[in-house]
Amino acid sequence: MLDIIIISCGIIYSFIVIFITLGMFRLPKSFPVKDEDLPTVSIVVSARNEEHDLPKCIASLEQLNFPKEKLQVILVDDRSTDNTYSIIKKAAQQNEHFIALSTENAPENSLRAKARGISWGIEKSEQEWVFITDADAEVHPNWLRHMLSQVDEKTGIIGGMLNVKPVSFLAIIEQMSWAYALPVAFGLAGWGRSFVCVGPNMGIRRSVYTKYGGLQNADFNIAEDLALFGIIESAGFKSVSYLTQSTSIQLNPVSSYKHLFSQQRRWLRGGFEGPMSLRLGLVLGFGFHFSVSLLFIIGLFFTLEIALLALALKFLADLFMLISQKTLLRKNKILRYFPVQFLYILLVMIWLPASVLINPRISWEGDGYEINYK
Description:
The protein is an alpha/beta fold and about 375 residues long.
């Protein structure tokens, strides 16, 4: 009986992954928009104690291939205790289209962490399209031109892919974790499901955001990107998501394994602040992953040949998804890290949901924010 269950799980898993992967090829292709067709744009970056990574982010924003007269870059310091605000202020002095802000001057509200800085930046923005990225991110020179290539008057939110620089073993783990999780969302978007844009790489219509009260009136604790998506979707606007090289951004890796695990726990718990359909999807998805991963590992001790066959099916399906991602994003070196992804995901799909259930306390590692769900 255990043999049948394990091999059935392997077959079902493979079909699901292949179906999702094929959806990635159905997404729209981006292209560079001509200068005369470009709208005016604001970019908001909220930073807290980011003196190490922020200069690289600012340098990439300075190198954007976008008309300066149509671009406004808003850098927000969220009460940092290092040199972040000095870096922001210097960037604004050197670039006429940059603005330096601090949440010290923002009206008091219930918003915390990144949401506070983003809200203050959007409030001070002047353009219809507001793009959001992180202080530890570096954008592609053609990022905005390509992100705006498939939008129309019905588009309310735009999303692109993330990639972590593989500069250490920890960074490789983080990179491959993104490379596994995000294609699931992109693939489902290719089949017509709404795509929940991720915080470091998204754009929203400011008029819709303002009309519906913004983040201050949204019901959330952790996932400000999910809250932004909910605002736009509830207003009846559509999302556009890309899986192309120019619409992707590079993230600098987190500083420690503790930070990485804290981050992943926060993402999972934050997902449950979304609509019922997303919560159900998370329960089914992580429940299935947890069960499959546990069964495969148990099977290695009780029915070795069948467990190895099921793992081989999973291996091939995951490899197909990664090869497809490599093709779409032109990430030529990513396949060399596949064994790390395969083993890490197999284990984390057991640890992560169990961890969130056992310990509901969620923290922003290094930022001093914490939420205790009861």
